[in-house]
Queue: 2 jobs
Job 1
Amino acid sequence: MTIKKGVSLYSLQDAYGRGGLGLEGTVAAVEEMGTQGIEILSDEMIRGAARASEETLTEWEAIMERHPLERVSNDIFINSSLYKNRWLTLEEQVELLSADLRLTHRLGFPLVRIVSQTDPAVIRPTLPLAEKLGITMAVEVHAGMSFDHPMTEAWIKEMKEVDNPHVGLVVDFGIYCQRHPRVSTNYFRETLGVNEDVIKYIDDIFARGTDPRQFFPRNPENPDDYLFPEELTRHFRTFQDRFYAMMSTGYENTPLDTLDEYLPYIKSFHGKFWEVTDEGEEYSIDYGRIFTRLNQLGFDGYVCSEYEGQRFVLPGEPIADLEQVRRHQELMERHISDGKDDGADAAQNDGK
Amino acid sequence: MFDGYIFTENSLANVVEDGKTAGFQMRTRIPYYRGIPLSMVHDVEVEVDGEAVPREDIRFTADDGEHWFTLEEMETVTFFRWEYADEATVRVLREGGLAPGEHEVLLRVSARVAYIPVPFSGEMKRTVTV
């Protein structure tokens, strides 16, 4: 029973694309960091995706032979917005998901991470194929739309009803934020001139031990629409101030007890991070706290580094994605035994 | 947040075909983190010295010119993908291209993604000298 460290290649999209590392260069870079597994987005790094050529698939196998990392998960998306004038029908969505299940099987991954807000009606029609291919389908529980979001709730309800090991959840650590990410705050401050009073108001919400999503009343007609109180809106000078407040609902301080409740369904975790500080900790997320709980619960599986700070690098500054992921792997290594009965860290914790 | 990927530096140039300058073009990366079918490119907008280029004068290729599409055509292009690793080229048809001298050119690219109700956009304005 142990936590294993992986890297989602999402983290290194800049090094891969603009930086020109390419797929093998990216995989080799994370291998050197001492990670055990990788998570990929086939739409991002497998040319052709579900219609990848035999040549592309052969090259992928060769890369994995040269860099033998465990294949943890393929993150897939159903392109429901494929056409400008209509949403895809359920049958069309099932067809696209089935194609991605076949691709995932060819790529050698046992798990697909399905993006938040996916219609759970796709589960039953695709389950026979998933079972045949030996692939588990897990929806992402992501900050801004975690356990209490109607779409996530609907998936969980369906997941419990079908009660099948091939259906589950991938939980993103972004739901366990205790502070608003500092790099995001700084980006909004520097590039969009967001008002300091708005920034402080949001920081204070987190300081109370809650988060904007729980703090703001929600429009009963639309779960993604928040009603900001007058004491906040009076600080709104530009649209950007409102935008910042709206974006702050994308970070959650969900109680850790949700892990106890959902662990039986959790197939993998995204180790979300925005900034590993010079002290070696994540600025907003207390990894020691989460790993302690996961070890106490006996979680056996992967936490994959998922770097989100690239979105908030100031214009003109380099994106230090390789360095941040390296630091994050070291952070996870330091905390990996937190809370274990037999570990040195547990002994330390007992003494506190 | 994807602005830094839009409008590759030093990529703008006039296009000369059969001895005539038919327009100008520039390169860009995708304002998103994965490849998408071209039909999900929601819009491409170009402004030159503050003036918007007519939508019908824009041409787009994501495979280095093997296939060119108008923006209207692109709405139904689900076969060809804009791969995450590749730069696309945005061409503006304009007789004579950009006149010699300095211009302010803005490029805005928007993509309709799977689960966000509003398209993701990135934009970049560059001062270019032709």
Job 2
Amino acid sequence: MSQGHTRMLLNGNHAVAHGVKLARPMVVPVYPITPQTPIVEKISEFQLQGVMDADLMTMESEHSAMAACITASLTGVRVFTATASQGLMLMHEMLHYASGAQTPIVMCNVNRTIGSPWGFWPDQTDSLAQRDTGWIQYYCESAQESLDTILQAYWVAEKVLLPAMVMHEAFYVSHALETVDVPDQEIADTYLPPFSPYHRLDPEIGASWGNVVNQDMFYRHRQTLGQSMEKAIEVALEADMLWEKLTGRGYGVIEEHRCTDAEIIIATTGSMAGTAREAVDQLRDSGMPVGLLKVKLFRPFPVELVRRALDEIPRVIVLDRNFAPGTGGFLHQELKAALYGLKNGPVIYGYLTGVGGTNVPPDKIAGLVRESMEEEPVNSSVWKG
Amino acid sequence: MAYTIVEEKIFCSGHHACPGCNAALAFRYITNTLGQNTIAVVPPSCGAIISGPQPLSSMRIPVYQTTLEASAASAAGIKRALKAQGKDHINVVAIAGDGGTYDIGFQSLSSAAERNEDIIYICLDNEGYMNTGAQKSSSTPYLAYTTSTPGGKPTAKKNVAEIMAAHRIPYMATATTGYLDDLVYKVRKAKDIKGMRFIVILVPCLDGWGVADHEGAKISRLAVQTGVFPLYEVENGIKYALNYGSQGIPVSNYITRQKRYRHLSSEQIDEIQQVVNADWENFKVKFNA
Ligand code: SF4
């Protein structure tokens, strides 16, 4: 679709800032951290220029930034914040608090290594370590996808009343320039109606939040949270379809690239999906029946869709740019769990590659696929550089 | 000070505080003075218990119970969202304990002050982590017994009033439940000021201090009259006004009524007296200037 947008040369972070501007949040509490900083800077610039009407709160920590997001959201406004790595770690307590209060906050997390030792490189362990905090999690592979996903994330979060995290990787996406179609404000406004939350902090309503509850009430709160999560997959698909109708761009919650008739499928997330797509095309050229499964929505995990995509496929190779000590790659674990019980499920190879930001070019991925042919799969993830 | 106390009935009886609790008394006068048009933020503390377990509430205003570190940031988030919606007339008050203020919540408090957030922050200071069974906080006074300083706290109480005044916020005040007219006057005054307002209220904890159920108000008066806890106001970090100060009553009158000081020798009581005297002399200078 060529109408209703401006084509711009943007890095991933500036693309996110444009997405945020289009979503019209009213309160934006932020704290800078590399490599997220350009998001905060761009939003500050928009605000100074008067093209974005948000109240920017320059907080003293990510913990406080998230605390302010939660209350601002409960008081009835749309909010945004961004973080990375240690910042996300510092928020951990408040992430649970946000989902517990069912506040539809949208946050961009730029995936970066966590200390110690210090590093600034692409690695998804920061956000994957938050997978059980009750946040919706999206992993994006390009600046365009990040922009589009910010708007979709609001659409979903506000429907199911859950906070949503949109991820892209340090430098590969956050700082690399791409041409991006920035939709016109009318398109965003058509897509995203004004925020009208279901319960709020307001003397006229008189409701409170956060008080001590008994066991039964806590149990029911957790159940409700679970039900919202379950609903989120369907709602995310709906959000994507609607966005595609308006802009011509859709991503699904998983993407299957050349998977029809594939005998080997590479499964991965984030920017690695872009590289793996290259590798798949190369391998296909050399006659190998290879496909790509990109998992875009990681929480809630789209178990049924993944099972359908991988049923009857003999071999799956999982590439994880992350590592959970004691278990291995996160996606590797998730896929094994998701596919358990499939009668004709694949054998699964879990490869830890790109952990800590090491470079993984298409040739390397093609090499890993060939290597797998020579190896028996093992239950644990294997280090592959 | 002649000040008529006008109460709107926001705070209700039947809450969960210990009988005679001065924190509950403070809650009553704070919320009743601020009135219906208020949203309160309360972190984990005795205040959280007093606010009531869900679905009950001792207060007829929305109360948001936040995490221990985040009272000021949470209150600021509410106020910013209200402003964005044109509902600026609603008061936002954070009511935290000394642990949530002097210690774990200090970072967010100090930064909210630096940003001059338009909130009222009230610290109910009972000089210890009373809600977890009376452990030391950085507000615990020198030589006071707590379960984590069984030999007496070896260091001085952090002077949060002066630290907050040094942020040059529009309004800082100290108050106590022994002088309710003064307390209400300060809450009332804070209500009408814009920007960051901070009030630290000394609230004797009957259990944690080891005083009788009916003695709270008396003890807190003695804290003022002995010069241990002077009541004063500071506007914009420079304009000091003293409301109630030392009347030269020996500090032993205050100390010997509390079990948390019963391990002290007479030399130690003398030492405390000397520190209080010196502090009071230094302090008076601010009002004569
Ligand atoms: S422990 Fe102390 S502060 Fe807490 S409710 Fe009891 S008397 Fe009040």
